[in-house]
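DM from R.C. (forwarded with permission)

"hey, sorry to bug you on a friday — could you get me a structure for this? deadline for the figure draft is monday and I only need the backbone to look sensible"
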Amino acid sequence: MNIRKIVIAAVGAAGLLTGTVCGSVAVADPSGAPAFRQLSGVGSDTTQDVMNGIANVVTINGVKVIGSYNATGSAKITPKDPTASPACTNMDRPNGSGAGRAALLTSLQAGNGCLDFARSSSLTLTAATPGLTYVPFAVDGVSYAITPSSTVPRKLALADIKAIYHCDAAYVGTGPNYKLTALLPQAGSGTRSFWESQVGITEADVVAGVYPCIKDTKNGAPVQEHDGRVLDDKSIVPFSIAQYNSQSSQTVADLRGRAILGTIDGLAPNVLNTNFGVKRDVYNVIPTSKIGTAPWSTVFVGSNSLVCQQTGVINTYGFAANANCGDTSKQTP
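My reply, with the result:
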């Protein structure tokens, strides 16, 4: 396949979003009373907004119980009342699924009660002490994003995308001045690890520079996932379909810039993502020891859990409901 220059108009999200969440752009970090919640969580950029939306409507005895902290924002967060839990004051804000999982484990190992769950857009069942359970709650699709005047076609086969991320000279040219840059989000991103698995590359090889056309920085700054402003006409980056569509609808802050989504293997990106070829479950990660303990069990566990009941909110943020919502079978060794 020869990469050809195409010029197309930017298009909005396909289809209609359903439901409403407060009728405005979602806010970062917990909003409203109480300021500190029973269940505090950090991690994935992909699911931060939908979990913020869920946190605003899920209550126990009329009290909000989920405190979901964004992947980016202030450098520090205080997820629990510092008068009762001084160790939780001014913690570093974890950015991404991997950083969220690591922060949760650190909190659990310290026994300080600062964090109770982590958001994850990828499944990472590597050994953990204490054990963790990945509880699915929604489905997302991931496509590639380019600019309207990109040298990359709007329609590609997954095999073509794999060739791009393997730095095949027929697609990206030869170094050091590649005609196409394959971008990856920041280290620790669940979207990064998911995309690597889809295009057949490993994190170790990326770090080792085996694929020199791949970059995860732009102008010296890490590439933040789902921020289309990083793109130019000679670059490509993975992008959550749910994030793209919720940004398009102004449900969340619009960071798309000039980004448009491409079609993979003849399937156009769509709102609910159930038929898109490149899709993934997204998770809330909880301590395995808490599966049967409230409020973890009430909020996250089982198809009738408070999170799983929020199909309307999940759809509003561009995700599909997950048929296995609340399942607890995916546990770390």
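R.C.: lifesaver. The chain has a mean pLDDT of 91.
me: no worries. Residues 52 and 158 are 32 Å apart (CA to CA).
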